[in-house]
Amino acid sequence: MQPATMDPAEEPPSMLWGLDPIFCAFARLYVRDILQMTESTQVPGIYFYNLHPIYKVDVLGTVVYKREREDFFCYGVDDGTGVINCLCWKNDLLKEEEDPTKSGGKHSDGAQGGFNPVAELALLRRAQQSRCRLEIGELLRVRGPVKTSRQQREIMASTFYKVNDPVMAVQIAWMMEVPQLYRQCYDKPLELQPNATGDSAISSLSKATNIIKEFLKQKSVTRFRPYDVQDLLQPLISSQPQTASADPEPVAGPSACQQLRQLLKEALQILQDEGVVYRKVKSQDEVYHVTAHDTDLLIAVKDVIREDSQREKYAEKGCHILHILSAVRQRHSLNVSKATLELVLKSLECNSDIVSTSDNHYTAF
Question: Cα–Cα distance between 174 and 162 in angstroms, integer?
């Protein structure tokens, strides 16, 4: 369990919270993490998960208890990791109980045999009431800010409704999406206060990566060695600002040549992580193959999918990406990464050579 309040020394300044895109979004966090988030010491009602400032969340779960008052519903929502109170305020339509005699009488004659706006409004109100009045065991989607009332964490719902999910399609999609959000956003701390040196290094690395990408695209390069692109990055080293030192004694540091080699090494690593390039054979002679222009790799992937999708095991659903990756590594190169394969699969699908049958499954036409 995390502490109830954030350590002021660790908490990022409130002026910088807007730099985090999660701050303005409804965070799809697990209930367990919502209950354990630390509260800001600067602004009450703001909470932190992994230093991300959060004040509104999006939850999908099963109603495990309910309480109704004149102005609101109180639902206990369980998403499998914990239970949280959701305070759902009633609007005016929900407060007014529908009188079945109102839709008849003088209004029914004027719209007899045609469209009756009063009757349609009554149907709409009943439909709205059915979506907002939930019973124990039904599925609820709720969005709103997080509050702490009487030392109990709860959600003050701004939007809530019952989810009809007879085949659990919504819940399965939710369970697949939320872990990806954790990996890509919530579990990655956002550095809100990078120093000037860090900014410069990040900027130079980003520029170096883009320069190499543009060169590979314009020249239609199929493979290259580091020294083929090293000179392209020379202006980035020459243009770096030289800061004046208050110390009269010169300070030893990396030479321009060393900085250039380090920048090139980091840029090539990023390109490998993205799958843009890969090394077919790892040896002292560093040769990088460009994924988009590597015909042999495209043919190898296409052949694996075409041959294996005809087998009975993969005939119905197609070949999973991990199976394709394993086969391509055996047939083409052990150094093919998943990111590289994903780019190849995307290219083949755009060319109508293969088709994705479901999530991460592919088959040949």
Answer: 15
89: β partners: 72
330: three-class secondary structure by DSSP: helix
Q: Could you tell me the two tokens for 140?
A: 């609820």
The whole-angstrom separation of Cα 345 and Cα 15 is: 43
pLDDT in tens, 24-61: 899 999 999 999 999 988 888 899 998 899 999 999 99
Which residues fall within 8 angstroms of residue 206, CB to CB, at 6 or more apart? none
Regarding pTM above 0.85, the answer is no
pLDDT digits (tens, 9 = 90+) for 73-106: 899 999 999 999 999 988 765 555 544 444 444 4
- Taking each helix axis as running N to C, give the angle between helix 321-331 and helix 338-350, from 0 to 180 degrees, rounded to the nearest 10: 100
